[in-house]
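> @MW can you paste both from yesterday?
MW: sure, first one:
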Amino acid sequence: MHMRSKLAGGVAVSAVAIALGATPASASVGFDSATGTGFVGKGDVQTALGYNNAALQKAVDSKSLVFTAKQPTIQSLSQAATQAGTQAGTQAGSQVAAQAGTQSATQAVSQDLTCTFTNGSGTKTFHRDGVRDGERTGSRSGSRVGSRDGSRDASREGTRTGSRAGTVTGTLGYDIDVDARKANQYTGFILKGWKGEPTYETGTADWNAPSFGDWSFGDYAFGTWSFGDYAFGDYAFGDYAFAPVTSVAWGAWDAAPGENPDDCLRSSNADKITALSNVITPGAVTDGPVTDGVVVDGAITPGTTTDGAIAEGAITYGTVAAGARTPNGPATLYVNGKAL
């Protein structure tokens, strides 16, 4: 910004009483906020403070004039951000099993007995029916499907940008600008720069929404499987094991009145019998109910995991990186707290 200066050469201004002119100088203010240097016309000071020449002279003599400056600024900000999250998931699975089974059955049995006697009794024929119990074992395989729920932790990295308004305020050193033609008069004040470091008043930061990258996930932690019922195939059975013939539940003999099949089988009649036929014939098998045994679970085969929604958690922000403070409006000069 423009700055005007007419400092009298070799004059120790602060130690010399300077007489005011009859009229204020022309209004003139020039200021460079970067260096704190510039020029303020005498008339501008008088107007700001409402001083006549005598009052201003008194203020100069008593060194009670204080020049300050204030300027709004804007500062760019950036900040790293980390966001936590969780994700639900459902995993499908399948499981095989084996099951033993036992099936009961009954079998029809018939017995035909024929013997020929030498004592004139002739040939005798007998028949009877019976039934015996049996059992067989088998096994079958099955499978079932299920699912289990789980969750996993996630995080993602990002940044956010923003800005922060502020105000630079400081006190300025100055000298009197003496009119070289009239050593007892001056036209204004030369601003010599900031006295010490200006103070900075920080306003509230205004942040944009953070921008994140992709989520980074850990492994799922799954709960217990929940399965439906097994779907079994048919049993594969072995052969029936039937009770021995001695355990057959026989019905009555089909014999003529007065005839006894025991006559054919008594050992005391062996020399009286020329021919003996005793044939037991297994008949049809009638399957009974199947009794299911214990189900032996096999291995579970985990399937596809279906990812659920991500629940976004808290955002943790890192250190704020602040950029340079940039002037965001004109600087305002003050003398004794009054704007120039």
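MW: second:
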Amino acid sequence: MKRKLIIHVGMGKTGSSSIQHTLRASGPLLQARGVKYLGLMLERQSLEKSPVWHKSDGWTQFTSLPEPQATAQLVAALQEIDQALPDSVHTLIWSNEALFNEVEQVAAAIEQLNLLFDITVVGYIRSPDSWIHSAYLQWGIKHKSYKGSLKSFPEWVKNKKFVVTPFINRWKQLVESVVFFNFEPIKDVCEHFITEYLPAIASDVKVVVSNETPSSAAIALFAYYNSLFEEEVLPNRLMPLLSESGVAKSRQVMPEFNGLLPGKEDISHFIADNRPEIDQINHFFEMEKQPPFDMNQLKFKDNNVSQQDINRALLQLVVHLSDEVERLKQVIKSQ
């Protein structure tokens, strides 16, 4: 009897990382229940002779091989996995979002693997408005995936098209069982995937949220940082600092600072609303032969701040911290 092979193909920006992290974290539980998660490039199952691409980030190396060689290696790897695993493992899962729109890279292999496995292809389709916005934040700003100056959205989006149906149709040509879900109404795509395809153990699998969109402030900091470089810049240059400091986390939206502060008119309204109490206090002062509150001259402190003031303060902090680091370096050096 054929094993089931579930191939999760993305598309990109539809929560694939969370699905992958959840399956990886639940590896022992899955295998105990007859399910083997193979990873992005089958790297979670050892092979006798591992191809150069047999690692989580091996997709580029896979696609750089001549097509017949890549096909032969992929088919051989899955045949070896099928033979090596015990009969108790009834389902294999392969998840890689690059597969969605690079289906031709594996098409010949899939045609052969249909004879070996009962294959189901699963994907999620995001609406073009939210997809292109998220894609720009990811590959236009957070991961500067091009050379030259940082591009605005209108510059970055030139010649980019929302292309989905040709890839869906191609997958349907290759595999009999193909399902692509509308991503938009799904509250949690990872939970949805587990419930749909692993219902018997869904209640035992702990969902791991991964690769959440950073806060708007963090995205702005990515833009500032990446604009310093002409070359491509990977997110991992800055992301650890933003994560450890908490800047990357979502937070409440803060109104413009100066708009939070009271103006003279606001203070005047407060005085008017509390006039009866003020009059009583002033009467008390008069009885005690003390000067009353003078409400004709409002005491008002202007706490408004300019961006220049903020920049100067931040620079002062940076210089102070730099001096502290230098001082600690000298202490360490002297020991």
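> thanks! Residues 305-335 form one domain.
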